[in-house]
Amino acid sequence: MTVVTLGVHIVDVLARPVESIPAGQDTHLLEQIRVTAAGAAAGTAVDLAALGVPVASVGAIGDDELGDLLVMIMERRGVDVSGIVRRTGEQTAASILPIRPDGGRPSFHVPGANLGLSAADVDRERILGARIVHLGGMDVTWGLYDPGFLALLDEARAAGTIVTMDLLSNMPDLMQGVRTFLGHVDYLLPNEEQALMMSGASGAEEAATALLAEGPSAVLVTLGAEGSLIASKEGITRVPALDVPVVDTTGCGDAYCAGFIAGLADGLDVIGAARLGTALAARVAGGLGSDAGLTGARELRVIPEPPDPA
Question: Where is the Carbohydrate kinase PfkB domain positioned along the sequence (predicted)?
């Protein structure tokens, strides 16, 4: 298996455009309502599958109807879901997202079974057999703050596996704890607010540089409409966003991660992989939900030709 995404799995119910919440029992008619697989592991997995990258997802969901729906959606998109565990009596994590006309996305969220994901749920051989492991939402999967799990990551990296990490929340109390992982990952992909909270810095470049010093090979900070910046030993590089009409920003970070991971799998350098992430995020921003605009997404990949043996 080329990629394993490990961490947060959520069912998103999205509606647009929502200008206000109706008073009392009133009804507002909308243009669109969708249900998608989301979360920093599940959303990234679906996007990777759309890019044609073989991917398995690992996480915890409930034994409820929402869990049935999430598994069905992911399987239909081509994701291997055999590593997802189901918790008896627990709810599958879910969000209700009323999308504003400008693409903003307030949310109502139930964390559900994600909070109980533990190192015991992770198949050791699946991790060691992956070319790339993506940690999605380690800030809320506290059961993975486990010395044995960190040692497994180190063992996989020593054997050549690349480890990437994205976050889920923007909660200050959780940002400091997740720094535990920085010495055990190759690429960190936070958004600007997360990077500032983790580092205590006052600006994105300062934050990326500070986090780079804690272990990763590169830190890629997403900046919304301003694109992203990459901090590595070569310095700071900025990758501009594409100018596209924005319908919904849900899942753009997951799409950026998926494109970046696919680029690494294809042999692109960090900047080239970040550009692929930028292109995929732009597609997702043009529709409703974390899997919007993915039809034909694999055409975005440009796989380098192997070197001439001569």
Answer: 14-290
